[in-house]
Write a structure and sequence with these properties.
By secondary structure, the protein is of the alpha/beta class. It has seven helices and five strands; from the N terminus they run αβαβαβαααββα. Bound molecules: zinc ion.
Length: 196
């Protein structure tokens, strides 16, 4: 028996309950206008600590809740889809959530880090930047990364939060902010120079 098999009964109940019929008008316009980015840790499932229900949010999960290039690409894609297919929005808030006692911190151990770099081919220096050692700091770094990324829709907002695993509480550390407009003045200058 596979591990998922024990949950198939819950799935049948879900299908019979019909909640799946109540969907957003477009799948990239979740009911609560939220795009949650959080850790893969089972304690940090936003359905649990935010009480998210069906269709209420887009959820991206990565180790540490860190905003990797893949996370950034998906976020920019969804913003782009809203711009193209639902111009008037509503635009969403991307909520970056890191947490205390994060397993990403195991990568602070040089030996473990080197071992995984060898196993995976990942760059060891990049792995060293991954741990959410001080979650409030890494959240700010990742919120800034999104705000500065030119491919992110300037019509969304980005906020930052720390989830405290020892209390079940979410603490907001960065209020919702719009990314810089694109193309930025600096980038426009580059384009002008490039074409000249
Ligand atoms: Zn974690």
């Amino acid at each position: 028996m596979s591990n998922i098999e024990s949950l198939l009964g819950r799935n049948r109940a879900f299908a019979e309950g019909g909640a799946w019929r109540h969907t957003p008008r477009l799948p990239f316009l979740p009911f609560k206008g939220l795009y949650v980015i959080t850790c893969i840790d089972p304690r940090t499932d936003p359905a649990g600590f935010l009480g998210l229900e069906f269709g209420e949010a887009i959820v991206a999960r990565a180790v540490g809740g860190r905003v990797t290039d893949a996370v950034l690409r998906d976020l920019s894609y969804i913003g782009y889809l809203v711009e193209q297919k639902a111009t008037e929005g509503p635009y969403f808030e991307a909520a970056v959530i890191h947490h205390t006692d994060c397993g990403s911190r195991l990568l602070e151990d040089p030996e473990l880090r080197r071992g995984f770099a060898e196993r995976s081919g990942c760059d060891e220096d990049k792995l060293a930047q991954l741990p959410a050692t001080v979650p409030a700091d890494t959240v700010h770094a990742d919120v800034d990364k999104i705000l500065k990324a030119p491919q992110i829709s300037p019509r969304i907002t980005v906020s930052g939060h720390v989830y405290h695993t020892d209390a079940g509480l979410l603490e907001t550390v960065a209020k919702p902010t719009h990314p810089g407009t694109w193309p930025s003045p600096a980038r426009l200058q580059e384009c002008v120079r490039g074409s000249g």
